[in-house]
Structure formats: C-alpha cells, structure tokens
Specification:
The complex is a heterodimer. By secondary structure, chain A is of the alpha/beta class. Chain A has a single domain, classed as Rossmann fold. By secondary structure, chain B is an all-alpha fold. In chain B, helix 8 runs antiparallel to helix 9. Chain B is built from 16 helices and no strands. Chain B is globular and about 65 Å long. Classes of the chains: A alpha/beta, B mainly alpha.
C-alpha cells in the first residue's frame, strides 16, 4: 500500500506539470467572469458556421512582443481557444497591436487596420498610453466613443479591453480615471469591457503571476502565460455572450 | 483658542483644511474613503475650494499690505509668496523624479516596458527638468501648484484692479473663462500634445472671483440684496447636483443602480472648469456664506482646531499631502491592501498632516513671541 502511494506520488511528479497548473492559473473570481452583453453579429455568424474574422486592435500588450513570439500574444491564444470552442467554424483573430498609441491614434488606424479586414467582431484594447501621457479625459472618452460609433455604423460587434495592471507603475501613473472612464463608456453603450486590469490585479495579489524576483530570461515565459490566460478568459467571455 | 485677531474668518481656514485632507484622500487611487469626499457628491471637488479660498485670502492679506504700505511693497510680498510656491513645486518635482527613477530601476518587466514606462522623460533629463522649472512639465499630481504660482505672479495687477474697480478685473476674467468654454482654448504643456491639467485661462476666473469677494468681505461690504433671493435657487441647484452625482457614485458601485443624466452630462470637464462644476460651486459658496458665520460655534470647537490650523498652514500641508499620497499609494501597491490597510494608510496620512500643521503653527507662534529672559524655549 505504501509502495503504491509512493508510486502515485512519483507518477504525479512526472506528469507534465504546466498543463495541470495552466488549468488553475487562469481562474478568476466569478464577478470578473460575468458577461451580460450580447454579440449578435458574431452569434449569427457562428450559428451559420461561416468564417469568422475578429480584429484585435490595441497597443504593445496586444502585439505581445514581451512573450517573444507573435503566436504567444493574446489574440493568437484567443483564436486557439475559440477554435476549440467552436470546432468546424474557421476563426481568424487578426493582431493589429501597435505600441505607444493613444485611443485617438488607434482610431485613426481604423480604416486600414479594422474596416479593411471586414471583421464581425473588433476587440479594442486601449487606454494605457492615454493614462501614461495624461491625455485629457474628455479627449480619451471622445476618441473611444468615435470608435464605437464607427464600428456600430458598420455593424461590427465590439469588446473593449481595459488596461494592464502592474503593481509598481500604478504608483506613478494615474490609471484610475481612465479605467473608470472606459468602463463608463462601456455602460453607456451597452458594450462589454473585459476587466483585464482587475484580473491581472487578482493574479498579482494571489501570487499566481508574480514578476518579482523572476530572472530576466524567465519573464518572457511568464508574460506568455499571462497572455495565454487573457486569451482564454476572453474566449470564455465570448462563449457566454454567444450561447 | 482662536487666533489673536478675533475677526479672522475661520470658515476660510476650516474649509481649506478640509479641502487639503480631501485632496490627499482623492489622490490615493481606488481609495475607499474617496467615496466620502466632495467629488463623490458634487461635480466640483476640493480643487475648487482650494483655489477659491486661496484667491479670497490673498485679497484680504495683500489688500491690507496694499492699503498700509503701497503697491510696490504688496507686489514684493506677493512675488515672495509666488517664489515660495515655486520652490515647493520644484521640491515636489525632485521627489517625483526620485520615485520614478526608483520604480524604473527596481522594476524592469517586458510586459510593461514598451508603453507603461514611466521614466521616458529620464531619457532627456536636460529637457524635462528645464520644462519642469518652466512649469511646462506637469507630471501626475504636480499640476495644481503651477496654476497657483501663475495666479500669484499676476496677482499684483489683479489686486490693483479690484481695489480700484472690481469690474475692471472681473469682466476680462469672465471673458477669458467664457472664451475657453466656447472655443476650448487649451494651454499647451510639455511633452508635445499635453495641456495644462488646470487650464489657467479657465481657472483664473475662480481665483479672481474669490479675490473680488474677499476684497468685498475685507471692506465690510456684503451683497445683502441678492443673497436672500438667490439662496433658495442655490439650495435647489445643490440638491439637484447632489442627487445626480450620488446616483453616479452608487451606479459605479452597484450595476443595477440608475445613473441619472449620465448620458447628457458626463464627462464633466475639470481641465476647463466646466460650468457644471463652477455654477454649483458658487451655489455652495452662497449657502456656506449664508448659513455659517465666520466665527460659528463648530469652527471654534476644539475638534475643528486641527483642520483650522491645517488650513492656515496650507502650503506646507498641501506639499506634505502630495508626498504622503504618493507614499500611501506605494504602500498599498507593495503590500496586500484590504480595507483595514487602506483605512490605516488614510488615518496615518491625515494624522501626519494635522500634526505637521500643528507643529508649524507652534513654531511660528514661538518665533513671533517676544524674547524675554526666561523665554529660552523659543529656539
């Protein structure tokens, strides 16, 4: 009996640990996993089993260079997760991340980077650079609203993604107002705002992902795991909006 | 005990003290206590209170100097004050640089490096430091002192104008304010594309209004005819603002709660001092002036004393508040922050500000006290 227990332990030790950890590490509290809004156009497309194009427009964290390779960025992870959820539907998530752009600058890219791709859903990750640069709240709000109106006029579903959380930079960058503004715009327009900031803070506080004391070489791997979780959580949210 | 001069308007000191505490509380992001400050119940916040009272007291203090010793002397005194504010600003900027450099060095993370880098300006310190000295570079929370400094720089002219004929100053001031409202004239800052967070062309109107009223007050004049007629109107306005703003606050806490008129009124522009902020603020001033006497009992109470003293030592307490809110934020970011930790940080910060004010007050009193043989304790 004893020997059997030891065997089990040994076997467990040699099981691919990351797989086991991965399943748990993306967990978030239920209130962060809520999704009340609908994505009607995406739903129709999926129902008809027609090819789906999703554009992920955003900044450095959308581009995902920190993880080391494009397929480790969150849009790729999202594409993989969605394809698993909807087998038989060709799903493509196009990555249009360009670092260091404000909401207004991203909006200027809409014609070439979003509209030209003819997406059914656009995921817009924005607000970081506006907060870092201290862009006026009105201007930020105005740019996001213009973007929403533009996408709505073209019958494209929208998800907004809020900022990244980082314990250290939070002390010198005033994220709160921009975060609040983005969520309020979401409320006003009945658009889902993916709570990336709150999720990342949860992971940081629960020590799921903690960059402190991690060697420089391992940081890219850690970044990739965070992006992976972001992609999966986004897929889960979309799943909830598209029954 | 009240100050030696019994005519001192304790309302100014008290509400400025309260404003300083609120500024500290509001500057700590996601602070639970900020649900209990002005900004949670009104469109305006402690910044309006601070600037208005600063204008009001400046008119009283320097108005006396002007009457007693002439314009040149008053100007010298005002610019000396502007210089103190400037030195305080530079001091805060140095602390900010220290904080940012520390963050940038201690923390090097690929996920944030590319666009959440706070230390960009360290790449070109020769530009950003000079821009900061010229009040052009205003990092987070270092934005209200530049406004105050500019106000003090032009105050000799304002003071001369209002002592001669207030409308001479009020009309151009209002015109500039309206121009900003109508055409949105921004005041550019550094780096390229930034603007003054507190647009001086708009906010000067609040400062000037305070100064004009302060000068009226100092001369023993009041506006008796208008007051009773406007008071009910002001109360209704304040009540409406309260209901709307509180509904916004509650709706951000509970999803189901309706946010009244949010679509129509939000966002309320702070940089340009939107009329939605200014008009209710004036209404609040009217209500306070009508209902609370300069020496009201609660202002003289022992419990109010620390806030009154903090209001009297406003510059020092303000600077300490800015440093403490940065420190408090740092503590909350570094350590797991439950509600207890948050309350502790708030309590320690507020206590430190009040004690510091008490200390300066004590020191200044000792300094002023005549040196008698047994008075070795003065130094």
């Amino acid at each position: 009996m004893r020997r059997l227990a030891l065997m089990c332990l040994l076997v467990a030790a040699f099981l691919p640990a990351p797989v086991r950890a991965e399943r748990d590490e993306c967990e978030v509290p239920p209130d962060l996993a809520q999704m009340g809004e609908r994505l009607p156009r995406l739903a129709a497309r999926l129902e008809a089993r027609e090819p789906v194009t999703i554009v992920a427009i955003g900044g450095a964290s959308t581009k995902g260079a920190a993880a080391g390779a494009p397929d480790l960025a969150y849009p790729s992870r999202l594409q993989e997760a969605l394809s698993a959820l909807y087998p038989g539907v060709p799903i493509k998530v196009v990555n249009k991340g360009v670092p260091r752009q404000t909401a207004a600058q991203m909006f200027d890219r809409f014609p070439s980077d979003v509209i030209a791709e003819d997406p059914v859903l656009t995921i817009w990750e924005t607000g970081i650079v506006d907060a870092v640069r201290g862009v006026e709240i009105d201007e930020f709000a105005g740019a996001v609203q213009r973007g929403i109106d533009e996408l709505r006029n073209r019958d494209i579903d929208i998800i907004l993604v809020d900022m990244q959380f980082s314990r250290s930079t939070a002390t010198v960058i005033d994220f709160e107002r921009y975060l609040h503004t983005l969520h309020r715009i979401g409320d006003l327009n009945d658009i889902y705002v993916f709570p990336r900031y709150a999720m990342m803070r949860y992971w940081s506080e629960e020590n799921v992902f903690n960059f402190d004391g991690v060697a420089a070489d391992d940081r890219a791997k850690l970044a990739a795991r965070v992006y992976n979780c972001i992609g999966r959580r986004l897929a889960a949210a979309i799943r909830r909006a598209v029954p | 005990m009240p100050e030696p001069s019994n005519r001192r308007d304790l309302r100014l000191d008290f509400f400025r003290g309260v404003a300083l505490v609120f500024i500290f509380v509001d500057h700590i992001p996601e602070n639970f206590l900020s649900y209990f400050t002005l900004q949670a119940v009104a469109f305006f916040d402690a910044a309006e209170v601070f600037i208005f009272i600063s204008g009001f007291t400046a008119a009283i203090v320097y108005g006396q100097r002007l009457a007693a010793k002439g314009w040149l002397y008053a100007t010298a005194q005002i610019w000396r004050r502007a210089w103190q504010l400037y030195v305080a600003h530079v001091f805060l900027f140095v602390i900010f640089i220290a904080e940012v450099s520390y963050t940038a060095m201690a923390f090097n993370n690929p996920m944030y490096n590319e666009e959440m880098r706070v230390a960009d300006f360290l790449d070109q310190p020769y530009i950003s430091v000079i821009k900061a000295l010229l009040l052009q570079f205003q990092p987070t929370f270092l934005d209200i002192l530049p406004l105050y400094i500019v106000m003090m720089l032009i105050f000799p002219v304002i003071l001369l104008g209002i002592s001669y004929r207030p409308s001479l100053v009020l009309i151009p001031s209002l015109a500039a304010y309206l121009a900003v409202q109508l055409f949105g004239v921004p005041v550019p800052a550094y780096p390229e594309g930034h603007v003054w967070y507190f647009n001086p062309l708009a906010w000067q109107f609040l400062f000037v209004s305070g100064a004009v009223l302060g000068q009226f007050w100092a001369r023993g004049r009041s506006l008796p005819r208008l007051m009773p007629a406007l008071l009910p109107l002001a109360l209704v306005l304040l009540g409406a603002v309260l209901v709307v703003r509180v509904s916004w606050t509650l709706s951000s806490l509970w999803d189901g709660f309706p946010a009244l008129f949010l679509r129509e009124m939000w966002p309320v522009n702070k940089s340009n001092l939107s009329p939605l902020r200014l008009v209710p603020f004036f209404a609040a001033v009217l209500v306070v002036a009508a209902w609370i006497g300069p020496q009201a009992r609660f202002l003289r109470a022992r419990a109010a004393r620390p806030l009154v003293v903090a209001g009297q030592q406003s510059l020092e307490v303000f600077c300490l508040g800015i440093v403490l809110s940065a420190l408090g934020h740092f503590v909350l970011a570094e350590f797991p922050h439950g509600i207890a930790m948050q309350l502790a940080v708030n309590a320690v910060g507020i206590l430190a500000m009040l004690l510091f004010a008490g200390m300066i007050d004590w020191y200044k009193r000792m300094d002023r006290a005549p040196m008698v043989a047994a008075g070795g304790g003065a130094r």
